[in-house]
Design brief:
- It is a single chain.
- By secondary structure, the chain is an alpha+beta fold.
- About 55% of the residues lie in helices and about 20% in strands.
- It has 13 helices and twelve strands.
- The strands form three sheets. It has a five-stranded antiparallel sheet with strand order 2-1-5-4-3, sandwiched between helices. The chain has a five-stranded mixed sheet with strand order 7-9-10-12-11.
- Strand 9 and strand 10 form a beta hairpin.
- The protein is elongated.
- The two termini are about 20 Å apart.
Length: about 425
């Protein structure tokens, strides 16, 4: 159980860390891509506004074609102008490789300018322009070029800017950030694994104290129970047995059964339970363990059906598996509806890798809520409590916890579901 708890802690911490790293790396790269594209679009806008060329550099970040009228309330604020021309400096027009395609109002290409790029000829520029006009898009990416369209007094203009350098930079940034993130993730995971024992130490100490308390309490309670039992027998020898002595003996039997199951559960939850693992005929074991409950079911007016596939073998502790069958079958007989049916099945799963033990019983009013709580120690749903007015039917709420511990000790799974008026417990034995 401690190792299972440690594994869960490591897995949860690793998954949370992975989600955070994905968010951080994705966010950083998203911002980087957005800013790179925004800078490219700003340069494209500058070229479009200046009819396919870069203007002379203005230290204020803008080109004044006419005196500015401060009284014109429609003129954009200085901050917006600076933002619009961000990334434009005296070297920009010499560093930026681009070509321009001009067209009339009907979309017919009238002119191309490839004087600022070496990788594209005039005919290729025309093809690029036609593809953009045919697509109907106003901006986007075509091959290694980012483009944007605009309108001028003479017609339409499309500017294509070479973004290979920007793409290479974005890819390198992505690879570097992923590599650093992966290295950091591995390092932190190693630290989590190393320090996980320390993190769960309070839980481990509490669990160990709980087990020790159960063991000590079990041994301490046995002595007074034995004395009470002996005194009751003496009372019955001195005088006739009466309802009080009978009630005392019933309670002693009940407490002895509870102590036995508590100690059994504590033993099953040890890190290395004392199981004798060997190959055995599980078909015979299941049939032998379930068949004695046939008579018990009949006395309660219920029907027990045992459907076991012949000749199945399993590697595990035969005694523990027999106890598992007994617990599940007894539970089904106890809580099946009056005149109901109990079915014990053993079969090979569809994938052929597991042997499934399925115990079901009729249940018109199945427990509500999370059915996994049925495996919690001392848990009994409200309906079972209301039906369990007689002590023999009441149980201790430990049996299913022991069944779960047995299944887990065999590195297998047990589950419970309610469907079609049946309560079904399934142990998938690997």
């Amino acid at each position: 159980m401690i190792k299972r708890l440690q594994r869960k802690f490591v897995v949860i911490a690793a998954v949370c860390l992975l989600i955070v790293e994905f968010a951080i790396i994705g966010g950083i790269n998203g911002v980087n891509i957005y800013q790179t594209n925004k800078n490219a679009d700003n340069l494209l806008n500058i070229i479009i506004e200046n009819d396919g060329r870069f203007p002379e550099f203005d230290p204020m970040g803008m080109k004044h074609d006419k005196p500015q009228d401060n009284s014109d309330s429609s003129s954009p604020p200085e901050s917006k102008k600076h933002d619009k021309h961000r990334g434009f400096n005296e070297e920009t027009k010499y560093q930026t490789r681009y070509f321009v395609v001009y067209a009339d109002s009907n979309g017919e290409i009238t002119k191309v300018d490839t004087g600022h790029v070496a990788a594209v000829s005039s005919s290729q520029a025309i093809e690029y322009g036609k593809s953009v006009f045919d697509s109907g898009k106003t901006s986007g990416t075509s091959g290694n070029y980012r483009y944007k369209t605009g309108d001028t007094d003479k017609g339409k203009i499309i500017v294509f800017m070479d973004c290979r350098s920007d793409s290479a930079t974005k890819n390198r940034f992505l690879l570097v950030s992923c590599a650093i993130g992966a290295a950091g993730y591995i390092l932190v995971c190693l630290l989590i694994i190393i320090f996980s024992k320390r993190a769960i130490r309070p839980v481990v100490e509490s669990f160990e104290k709980q087990k020790q308390f159960i063991t000590d309490a079990g041994h301490e309670i046995k002595t007074p129970l034995a004395i009470i039992s002996a005194n009751t027998e003496v009372l019955e020898m001195v005088s006739e047995p009466n309802q009080w002595t009978v009630s005392i003996k019933n309670q002693i039997t009940r407490l002895n059964g509870l102590l036995k199951e508590l100690l059994s559960l504590a033993k099953m939850e040890e890190e290395k339970p004392a199981l004798t693992m060997a190959d055995f005929n599980i078909s015979d074991a299941v049939y032998d363990a379930a068949s004695p409950f046939t008579t018990l079911a009949e006395t309660k007016g219920k029907k027990l059906t045992i459907d076991v596939a012949n000749g199945l073998s399993y590697h595990g502790d035969e005694g523990a598996i027999r106890q598992l069958v007994s617990i599940l079958t007894e539970n089904a007989v106890k809580y099946a509806d009056e005149d109901g049916e109990i079915i014990v099945k053993l079969f090979t799963s569809h994938n052929g890798k597991e042997t499934d033990l399925e115990v079901s019983n009729t249940c018109k009013e199945p427990p509500q809520g999370d059915l996994t709580k049925l495996f919690d120690r001392f848990y009994r749903d409200d309906s079972s409590r209301s039906r369990s007015k007689d002590e023999k039917k009441g149980g201790y709420g430990i049996g299913l916890s022991i069944a779960q511990a047995i299944v887990r000790s065999h590195k297998s799974k047990i589950s419970c579901k309610a469907e079609n008026g049946m309560m079904i417990f399934t142990a998938q034995l690997k």
